[in-house]
């Protein structure tokens, strides 16, 4: 190593120079003390108000997934692979994130008949799903038969979620699936808001609705407005079809809840066990598929510019940005937004 002192090293101070003339220096510091104190004391603004830091909260977030020509999910894309248009004008992206790092779940659990018994056996599978998103993952539980009930508000305590899956039997014979799904969506309105958190409803039911006031189309509209994806797990009922058992047709719009909100539909059909009350489905593969599905999604964000602010209603379009990706199809979970004055 070069023995010469580095130009950035501190200079050595001569002992005599450090001790020379102490009293004039002390007098000088004493004379300047009032000015130093005055400079360190926060001074009020002329209006007497404290300084306020302005933070922009108008980030428009879009969640989407991409499929190829075989309808398979496409992962590994970058921000440069997407082009976003707001009312026909290209916008510059300010935020991009592949996959899902934070998630909030509402489990909407059918409390009727054999579904209730199967749900109770899926407690560990549900907590395993939460564990894939870390300790910050939140969950709430809504149970329903004729009416929905918020059995558990949002919590990060997996033990409480585990207990909430133990549903008490309800004597009602009618089921309000769409009312319950709407209640699950609105549970997000009472929870803390986190723009980067994925919102998920996991609906577990036999698919038969015979009392709901809410219509499937209105439930889907509210889900899209809140940025919530619905994953439907269908424990089917069976009916005779000739010499065999067939799946009983679910309520109209039941499957649409998933397909039109960016979720997925899982039919757990096994007619060979349709009449066996002891048979139990295993939801671990289903919940793993849900977690994998969330990791295949993308999140994009941008700030509206001054020109955009002059228009209250906005139509969004997301397309592949490069020629090599033209055959890919972008499925956005949000296609419009409104700017409030």
Output the structural class. alpha/beta
Described by strand count, sense and barrel closure, the largest sheet is: 6 strands, mixed
Distance N terminus to C terminus?
66 Å
- Major β-sheet strand ordering: 7-6-5-8-9-12
Query: Helical proportion?
Result: 25-40%
If you average the pLDDT, what whole number results?
Answer: 81
Structure at a glance:
The protein is built from ten helices and 16 strands. By secondary structure, the chain is α/β, with parallel strands linked by helices.
What's the arrangement of secondary structure elements?
Layout (H helix, E strand, L loop, with lengths): L14 H5 L2 H19 L19 E8 L14 E5 L2 E2 L4 E4 L4 E8 L2 H8 L2 H9 L6 E7 L3 E8 L2 H7 L12 H10 L11 E8 L10 H11 L1 E7 L3 E4 L2 E4 L8 H4 L5 E3 L16 H12 L2 E5 L3 H4 L3 E8 L8 E4 L3 E3 L3
Parallel strand pairs: 5-6, 5-8, 8-9, 9-12
Antiparallel strand pairs: 1-13, 1-15, 2-3, 2-14, 4-13, 6-7, 10-11, 14-16
Model description:
The longest helix has 19 residues, at 22-40. Residues 1-23 and 25-50 have low confidence and may be disordered. α7 links the parallel β8 (198-205) and β9. The chain has 341 residues and is of the alpha/beta class. It has helices at residues 15-19, 22-40, 113-120, 123-131, 158-164, 177-186, 216-226, 256-259, 284-295, 306-309; strands at 60-67, 82-86, 89-90, 95-98, 103-110, 138-144, 148-155, 198-205, 228-234, 238-241, 244-247, 265-267, 298-302, 313-320, 329-332, 336-338. The termini are far apart. The strands form four sheets. The chain has a six-stranded mixed sheet with strand order 7-6-5-8-9-12, sandwiched between helices. Helix content is 26%, strand content 26%.
């Amino acid at each position: 190593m070069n023995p010469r002192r580095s130009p950035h090293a501190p200079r050595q101070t001569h002992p005599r120079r450090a001790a020379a003339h102490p009293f004039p220096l002390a007098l000088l510091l004493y004379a300047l003390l009032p000015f130093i104190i005055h400079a360190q004391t926060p001074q009020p603004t002329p209006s007497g108000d404290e300084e306020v830091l302005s933070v922009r909260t108008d980030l428009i977030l879009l969640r989407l997934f991409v499929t190829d020509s075989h309808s398979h999910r496409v992962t590994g894309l970058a921000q440069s692979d997407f082009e976003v248009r707001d009312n026909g004008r290209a916008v510059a992206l300010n935020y991009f994130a592949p996959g899902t790092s934070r998630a909030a779940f509402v489990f909407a659990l059918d409390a009727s008949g054999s579904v209730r018994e199967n749900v109770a056996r899926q407690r560990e599978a549900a907590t395993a799903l939460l564990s894939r998103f870390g300790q910050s993952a939140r969950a709430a539980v809504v149970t329903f038969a004729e009416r929905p009930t918020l059995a558990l508000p949002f919590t990060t305590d997996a033990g409480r979620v585990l207990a909430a899956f133990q549903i008490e039997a309800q004597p009602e014979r009618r089921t309000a699936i769409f009312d319950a799904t709407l209640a699950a969506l609105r549970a997000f309105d009472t929870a803390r808001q986190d723009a980067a958190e994925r919102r998920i409803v996991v609906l577990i039911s036999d698919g038969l609705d015979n009392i709901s006031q809410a219509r499937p189309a209105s439930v889907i509209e509210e889900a899209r407005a809140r940025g919530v994806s619905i994953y439907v797990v269908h424990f089917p009922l069976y009916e005779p079809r000739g010499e065999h058992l067939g799946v009983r047709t679910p309520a109209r719009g039941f499957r649409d809840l998933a397909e039109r909100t960016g979720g997925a539909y899982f039919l757990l059909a096994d007619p060979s066990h349709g009449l066996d009350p002891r048979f139990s489905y295993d939801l671990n593969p289903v919940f793993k598929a849900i977690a994998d599905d969330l990791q295949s999604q993308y999140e994009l964000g941008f700030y509206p510019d001054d020109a955009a602010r002059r228009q209250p209603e906005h139509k969004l379009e997301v397309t592949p940005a490069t020629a090599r990706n033209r055959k890919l199809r972008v499925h956005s979970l949000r296609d419009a937004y409104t700017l409030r004055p």
